[in-house]
Amino acid sequence: MQNSALNRRLWLKQAAAGTAAVGVGTSSVVPACFQQIAAASESDSGQILVVVQLSGGNDALNTLVPYNDDAYTAARPKLSIGASDVLKLDDEHGLHPSLSGFNELLQAGNASIIQGVGYPNPNRSHFESMDIWHTCFRKDQRTEEGWIGRYLQSQSSPRSGDAPAMHLGHNAQPLALASRDLTIPTVKSLKGFQLRGDESAVVSELLGNQPMQDQATPTAPADSSLLGFLNSSTSNAIAASERITSAIKDYETPVDYPESGLGAKLKMVAQLITSQLSTRVYYVELDGFDTHAKQADSHAALLRQYSEAVTAFMKDLKHHQLSQQVCVLTFSEFGRRVAENASEGTDHGAAGVMMLCGESLKPGLLGQKADLTDLQQGDLKHQIDFRTVYAGIIQDWLGGDAETALGASYEPMKLFA
Amino acid sequence: MRSRSLCHSRLFPRGFALLLAVFVTGVTAHTSVAAEPDQELTAADLLPDSVVAYADAPDLAGLVETVLNHSVTQQIKQSPVGQQAMQAPQLAFLENILKGFEGQVEMSWQQALKSFTSGGVCIALDAPTQGVAVLIKGSNAEDMKKFSTLALGTIQLANNSLGKSKKAEYRGFDAYAITDKAKMAIMDQWLLITNNSDLGRLIIDNYADKTFDQSLAKNSRYQAALKQVQQCNLRGYVDVEAIRALNVAPEIYRGTTDNLVAEFLFGGLVGNLQHTPYAAVGFQLSNEAIRLQAASAFDPENIEPRQYFFGEDGRATAPAIVSLPETLHRGSLYRDLGQMWLLSPDLMTDNANEELAQADTTLTTLFSGRDFGEDILGALKPGISWIVVSQTFSDKAPLPAIKLPAFAIEVQMIDAETTTREFRRVFQSFVGFLNIVSAMNGQPQLDLDFLKEGEVSGVIASFVPPIDKQDWKKAPIQYNFSPSLAFSGDRMVLASTTELATAMCQAKADQPNLVQPGDNGLMHFEVAPIGSVLEQNRQQLVAQSMLDKGHGMEAAEAEIGILFNLLSMFKDATIQLRTDDQHLKFSTEVRFVTSN
Amino acid sequence: MNASSEQLFLNSLDPQWAWQSFQPSDSDPWNFDAAAHLVRRASFGADDARIKTLASGTPAQAVDLLLAKADNGEVFEQVSDQMADTLLASDNPMTLSAAWVYRLLFTPEPALENLVLFWHGHFATGADKVEKASLMWQQNRMLRQHAFGDIAAMTQSIAKDPAMLIYLDSVSNRKSHPNENFARELMELFCLGEGNYSEHDVLELARCFTGWEVRNNKFRKNRYQHDSGSKTVLSKTGNFDGEEAVDIVLAQEAMPLFICEKLFRYLIADGVTTPKSLLEQPAELLRQSDLQLLPTLKLMLGSNLFQSSWARHRKIKSPAHLVIGLMRGLKATSNSHRIAEGIREIGQGLFYPPNVKGWAGGRDWINSSTLLGRANLIRDLVRDPDTKFDQGGLSDYLKRIKADRPDAAIDLYQRLMMVTALPDKTRQTLIESFPKFGKDKEARHRGLLHAVASQPTFQLG
C-alpha cells in the first residue's frame, strides 16, 4: 500500500515535470493542473472521517449504563442492565454487554464516549431532530445544507477528481452531506468504480492513457482547458478504478468482518481508504434503533452489529497501517426516554451519547454522568451541545474552519490528545 | 450473421448427405448378428442399483407429437411473433437437415423418432463411478444401428473428425469414442452413451449376461418413487438417502432458512429432505393440461420442528375456501402461525432470528404492546385462507387510475368473544396510526365506521374522497381500498374492501370444496378474471410498454394485444401440497382452454 | 485552473462581432460540422440525414427550423401527455422521469425540450422533497408552455407553483412571520443574482408574499394572512401584493442580464465569467421583446460567437445531452426507465436536481465516479438487446448509411457527436481492437460505440 501511494506521487511528479518541460507560454494550462495534483498529494495529511449514523434514536442509557444508579433501575424495572451483566468501565458506568468489541477499543485507548450530548429545546420527531443534527439548524432556519457539505464546500475543490465525500448504502442521501456547490455520490457497491463489460480492458487501457497535454487532436485549440481537464480527470478516474479494483481483488485482511449490513459497508469503506482515494468523509447508516417495544433483544442485536462492525473496521485499518488516518464518529438523532414504557420498550427522548474511535483521541468517558433525577419532561438534559463536538472534529481533525461549516460559532470540544 | 447461416444451409446438407451415404453403406456392409431382443427389458434393468439420480421419457415421440399438435403451439405459430420465427434462416436450415435425414432413413422424421426411442430414453447418474449414462431403446436393432451411426457421424462432422473415431468391440458389441470423454455403444436395439468406461462396461455386462439382480429396477426406493409418477411423460427419481450420505450440498438439508416467507410456504417440503429416502418428479403434458409433480416419502414421526406446518399428527388439512364470483385467485394453507413464530429459532438461521427479534419489536409496538407471537397469532386457530376477486368501480366514488383487485384473508379465532374485541381495537388503532402517517405525507385520510349486517359485524374504513371532483377521475391508488375487518362467529376476515369483507363472511364454502382432505395447502388461479383485471388497466400497460421498449403508441398496443392473446389460451392453474399415508406430494397444474 | 486565458479571450471579444449573425467564410464555413454543433447545443443532436438537411440551407434557416413548431408536434404532445397522465397513477416521480426521457428521445421539437430542461434547472425543484408526482408534472407542463416564450408569465406562475413552494418550505407564509425563502431565491437564483438586492429587500419582498400558501396541493391566497401594509422593494414603495412584487423584480435592469448570462452558460460556454459588456446586447433584446425569449435565443444560436471555434470546445455534455444525444444521433430507442435511472446515477436525475441552485454544469458533471459511471451507463445501454438502432441492429443501420467499416463508424460518431477528433493513436487502437469487442459484427459495433463514447473527447461538445 505504502508503495503504491509512493508510486502514485512519483508518477504525478514526473508527469508534472514532464509536461512543465514541454509546456511553455500559453499551453501551461495542463502542467499547472498536474503540478497542483502533485503538490496536493505531497502534502496529503489525509485525515479521514467516517460517520456512522444510528437511525431511530439509540437508547443511550442502555448503551452507556449507569448501573449503580438507583434512579436508573427504578425507571427501568424490566429493561435495566445489572451490575453483573454490564462491561464495567468504572464504579458508575458500564457498557451494554453487546459492546464487547467496542470495549476493547475503549480499554486500548482507541475510543471515547461523549455523554449527555444534545441541543436546547429538544425536538422529539425523528425527522426534525435528525435534520437538526444534519444541518445544525432548526427547521425555520437554514435547512438546505448540512454541516459536512458546508465544510467540504469551504475546502479547495477536490484535486484528484475523487469525490470529496461518499455516502454508502441504498438510503436517500443524508442532509448532512448536502451543499449548494458540491454533489456527493451515493455508492451502492464498489462495482460502480469498475468498468463493466468484456471490452472493459481495451476501454480501460485507452482511457488510462490520455495524452498528457493537448497535442495531436487536429481540431482542438491548444488551450482548450476543458479537454485538458477531461483528459486528466479520465486518467485519474481510471487510475482510481484500477486501485480500487486491485484493492478489492487483492484485499487481504486477517479481520473477519461480521456478516451484517454495517459490516459490509465498513469493509467497503476500508477498501476505498486503502485504495488511496482522496475522499475525506465516508457516511454510513445503521437503522432500527426506534425500539418502542420489546427493546431488549433487538437493541442488543443492533449494538452487537455496531460494535462488531466498528471493531473489525478499526482492526482492519490498523492492519493496513491506516488507523492513524481515520476517525469514526457515531451519533443518533436522540436518546430515549429514561423510564421504560409498558411494552418493554422506550420512547423518544432527548440527550444521548456519541462515540468516537481512532488512535489520537482523548480516550475514555468524556463529559459528565447523566443526572437521572434532574429531567426535562422525562428526558435527560444535555450537557454538551453536539455542535461543539462537530466543531472539535472539524477544527482539530479535518483542519477546517468550524464556524463556516456549522454556520455559527461554537467552542470546539477537546476530543483529541 | 445472416450471410453465414445462409452459407451453412447450402453447404451443410450436401456434406451431410455425403456423410449419410458413407455411413449407411458402412452399416449395411457390417450388419451384426442381433441377439434375441427382449421386449420387456427396461433401462432400469440394465442400470446398477447404485444410481442416485435417474430421469426418463418413456414415450418421447408421443410427447413431441403432443407438443407440435398442441393448441398453444398452433396459436403461437399463427401469431406475428411465431410467423416471424418460422421465417428465421435457422429454421430453414433445420428443415433442410431433416429433409436430408428423412431421405436417408426413408421414413418421416416423426416415424424415425418413434422407432428410435420407442423403448424409452433415459439418463442416469451413478454414485460409485461418478458416471453418467444415457440409454435409448429403439424398436429394432437394424434401425438402431442406422440411427446410431448417423448420430455418430453428425457428432464427428460437428467436431471436424469425420471417420476418425476410435472403434472397439466389447462383449461383441461395437463401441466408439465420440469425444475425449464420451463413449457410445450399440447393443442390438439399445444405444448407450456414457462418460465413464466402468459404468459402460457394467451396463453392457448386465445386458450380455442377463444379470439383473443388482439392478436399479430392483431397488425398492426406485420402485416406490416411480410408482408416484407412473403416468408422466418425463419422470425423475432421486435417491435422497444416498445423496445425503455423500454429503453433497449440505445446506439443503440444514433445515433452517433466512427467508420467512419461503419457510411459511415450503418449509415442510424442504424440511422433509432431511428424512425422506427418495424423491420423484414427473412432468405430464396433454391437450388439456400441463402438470408438474413431485413426491417424497413422508413419515409423520419426522416432522419436528414443523408441527406448525403439518399439524401434530402430520396430516392436517387446510381450511375450506369460499367461492365468490370473479375470483382470480384463492388459496388455503394449514399453518399454525403462533406456533411458527415461537418455533422460529429452530427454523431460521441466526441472522434471520436477529431480524425477527427486531420485527417483533416493531410489530409489538404496532399491536399496542400485545405480544405478537403469543397474543396476536396465538389467538388464532391454525389455518389461513385467502381470496382475490376483481372489483367493479362505481362512478359515485373516486375512480382509481390503477385498478387493483380486492383481496381478503380469513382466519378462525380460538376464543371469538375476547379476540373479536382485541382485533377490533387493534384495527382501529392501526387505522389511526395510518392516518397520522398519511397526514404527515399528505396522503388521503381514512374514515372509520362500524359494520353490522345480520351475523356479520366489524370495523370498516374508507378513504375520504378528494374535495375537488375533478380529481375523482384519476384518483390515487388508495381508492382501490376500503380496509375492513369483519367477524362472523369464529371467522375473522381482513379485507382490502368492505364489499369483499361482507361477501366473504356471508359466503359458504362450496361443496365439495376445492380443498380435499389431506391437502396441506392449495392455490388456485383463474385466468379469465385475471385477464379482465389486466384489461381494466390496459392503458397503464400500454404506457409502460412505450417506456420500456421505446415503442410508439401503436406498437405498444400491438404488443399488449399479443399478451392478451397468449393469456386467453390458459384456463386456470393449481398449486397443491398434500400428504397421504406415505408421501408428501407437491404438484402444479396449468390447464388450457380447449376449443370445445 | 487557468481560466485566465479564456477570460482574456472573452474580455477582448468585440460584442458587435460576437452577436452578428454568423457569416460563413472559407476559414469558418457553414457545413455539416457547424450544423451538427448547432443541433447539439440547441437540442440533443440529430441523425446524419437531419443534419445534412440543416446544413444544406443557410445558418439562419437552420436556427429557424430548429426552433419552429413541428408538423406532428401536437400529436406527439397529446400522446406523451396522455402517457404521463396515465403514469401519474403510480405517483412515482421516477416514472415521470422516465416519461420525460421518452419525450427527450422522441419529440419532434427537441429544442423546446432542451429549453424545458434549462428552465427545470433554473427553477430547480426536487421530487425527493415534493414527493407528489402530479405536482412535478404540473410544473413541468407550465415550464414547457413558456419555455421559448414569456419569462414574465413563467416567473409569475412559478411564484404560485405548489411544487416550488413545497420545495422551498414555503407552503405557509404568515403576516407575523414572513417566510423569506421564496423571496430570497426569487432574487438570488431566479431573476437577479447576488449583489443586485439587499437583505432589506428580501425582508420587504417576503412581506409581499404573505398569505400565499399551498393547501391540499393547490395554491391559494389567504387574505387574512396578507400583510397589506406599505413595503419598499428594490427602491419602489407601495402596498404591493405578490404579483406586483414579481413584476418589480422582473423590471430590474439586472434581470435580463442574469437570464442571458445563464443562457450563455447553457448554450455557449461553461465555466467562464461572461463580461457584462458582452451580455448587454442579448439582454437589451430580451428587454425590448418584453421578456419573450425566442428572439434572444435566435440571436445567440445564430451568432458568430456561437459558431466560433472557441465556443465549440467550451462545453462538457450534461448526462442528458450525452445519452440522449447518442440515442438521437443514431436513431436509437431503448428502455426509458433505464435511461432515467442511469442519468440520475451520473448526476442528472430529471425532477431530481441536486439543490435549489440546480445543476452547476461544466466541470461539476465530472469526477471519478461519474466518469466511470458515464462509461458504464453507455455500456449498459449500448449492450442492451432492447436498444434498437433505427428499429434494428447497429451494424445493419450503419450498413444502410454506409458507415459499417470500423473507421467509417468512428468517422460517423465524430461527425455527429464530437467536436474534437479522437487522437490518432486512440483511433488506431480502436480500429485494431474492433475484433476484440465481440463475437459478431453487431457485438463489435456496439462495443466500438461504447469505447468511443467513453473517451474524454466524447464528453466535450
TrEMBL record, chain A:
It comes from the Bacteria. It holds the Pfam family DUF1501. InterPro entries: DUF1501, TAT_signal. Transmembrane segments: none annotated. PANTHER family: BLL7424 PROTEIN, DUF1501 DOMAIN-CONTAINING PROTEIN. This is DUF1501 domain-containing protein. It comes from Stieleria bergensis. The lineage of its organism: Bacteria, Pseudomonadati, Planctomycetota, Planctomycetia, Pirellulales.
TrEMBL record, chain B:
The keyword Signal applies. Residues 1-34 form the signal peptide. Keywords: Signal. It comes from the Bacteria. This is DUF3352 domain-containing protein.
UniProtKB/TrEMBL annotation, chain C:
InterPro entries: DUF1800. Pfam families: DUF1800. This is DUF1800 domain-containing protein. It comes from the Bacteria.
